Amino acid sequence: MDQFLITGSSRIAGEVTISGAKNAALPLLAAMILAETPTTLHNVPSLQDVRTLIALIGGMGIHIQKQGDTVTCDTKTIDNFYAPYNLVKTMRASILVLGPLLARFGEAEVSLPGGCAIGSRPVDQHLKAFEAMGATISVENGYVKAQAPKGGKLIGCNFSFDMITVGGTENVIMAAALAKGTTVLGNCALEPEVVDLANMLVAMGAKISGIGTSTMTIEGVERLHGCEYSVVADRIETGSYLAGALMTRGDVLAKNTSALLLTPVLEKFEDMGAVITTGDDWIRAQMTSRPRPVNIRTQPHPGFPTDMQAQLMAISCLADGTSTFIENIFENRYMHVPELNRLGASIQVDGHAAVVTGVENFTAAPVMATDLRASMSLVMAAATAEGESLIDRIYHIDRGYENVESKLRALGVNIERINSNNSND
């Protein structure tokens, strides 16, 4: 079981090149199943979740391979429509193969998903939409079994999600692209990753209007073809590295990214005292003083993203004053709080609210990563602490941050990956 050993008191400064977004790459990979001709996807990050989904797609007999940051896929050899538990259990995004399989081939059997233990993320909205499109859905022995209506084609419908769901929106627009007739989807998620998927589907021949709005209209087409497409930059990775500058009075230039992807985060950085400058494909964060306290309430896009809550909380731990956080997306998303407190933070949690009283600095301690984004908040906190901190369960961070050690070292962080054979996790 790998761990990070971090020697703190670092000033985080330098340049970092941002990778393609995990949360965009995964639905784009699933969308490749829809194409009758080969598809090429660029700027794909090398992450465990990406490798898992490629293995899952390859297990269906599809020819899919990754070389560097490019994935090529040819579906003509597909021989089954099955996504097994041993692969699906590690990440929720596996459910995204359900819509493409059902839409193109008329059937699918996909295990119910796993992933980070940060709260209930049911797939009922996905299934309700597919049923509205005429599919027969059953859940047996932990597997979702789906069958298209007679004739093998889903039927366009009007459907409004009961709650905003990123994965649900993605799964259903993929299915609707090949449905018979027109589908009008209401209460759609607005995240940049959803927009990226819709844009790739259009490049494959789909007819979608209302992209980037809460109501999308998808006019089903007979078939989709392959295309060449590039994954959007990872806005959460961008924000995570920029956060290091705010915690250490540093200076970070993030390249190959876009300020338009994380406007609410950059606004909070400025509220905390950072100087933010941007160009077409770069963002720079400079900090010369102790952070100012802020109040943060997580919301679906375009509100403040839940995936940046832990990183902003880590900055707030060092603020000159008291900050408040309201987590509205996931009920278990404060699991990093006890670990930050072990590093000397002063955080009190009451339900969905957390009150952070700023301290002068963190102190080194052994801590445990609890989920993907929380793990980065602990890494950044440890980098500022005086002394050595050991971070356990870093497999979480490997799921979402490409080449994390080399990028952090380039920014001045003293970090080493070690293998602990004595871990009893």
Provide a brief overview of the structure.
By secondary structure, this protein is an alpha/beta fold.
How would you describe this structure to a colleague?
Helices cover 30% and strands 25% of the residues. It is of the alpha/beta class. The protein has a four-stranded mixed beta sheet with strand order 22-23-1-24. Strands 2-15-17-16 form a four-stranded mixed beta sheet. The radius of gyration is 22 Å and the shape is elongated.
What distance separates the N and C termini? 8 Å
Helix content: 25-40%
- Major pleated sheet: 4 strands, mixed
- Separate helix tally: 14
Oligomer: single chain
Tags for this entry?
425 residues; alpha/beta; four-stranded mixed beta sheet; 14 helices; 24 strands; 30% helix; 25% strand
Q: In terms of topology, how is this protein built?
A:
Elements: E1 2-7, E2 13-17, H1 22-31, E3 39-42, H2 48-58, E4 63-67, E5 70-74, E6 82-83, H3 85-88, H4 98-105, E7 107-111, H5 124-132, E8 136-140, E9 143-147, E10 158-160, H6 166-177, E11 182-186, H7 192-203, E12 207-209, E13 216-219, E14 228-230, H8 235-248, E15 251-255, H9 263-271, E16 275-278, E17 282-286, E18 295-297, H10 309-316, E19 322-326, H11 337-342, E20 346-350, E21 353-357, E22 367-368, H12 372-384, E23 388-392, H13 395-398, H14 404-410, E24 414-419
Parallel strand pairs: 2-15, 3-14, 6-7, 10-11, 18-19, 22-23
Antiparallel strand pairs: 1-23, 1-24, 3-5, 4-5, 7-9, 8-9, 11-13, 12-13, 15-17, 16-17, 19-21, 20-21
